[in-house]
Amino acid sequence: MMNAEMNRLLDQLAAAVGAKLNADKKILATAESCTGGGIAEAITRISGSSAWFDCAFITYSNQAKMDMLGVKKTTLDSVGAVSETVAREMAEAALARSGADVTVAVTGVAGPRGGSPEKPVGTVWFAWASKNNSTISERCVFLGDRAAVRHQTIIHALTKLLHN
Question: Which of 25, 43, 67, 100 could form a disulfide with 29 if both were Cys (CB 3.0 to 4.6 A apart)?
Answer without folding.
Answer: 100
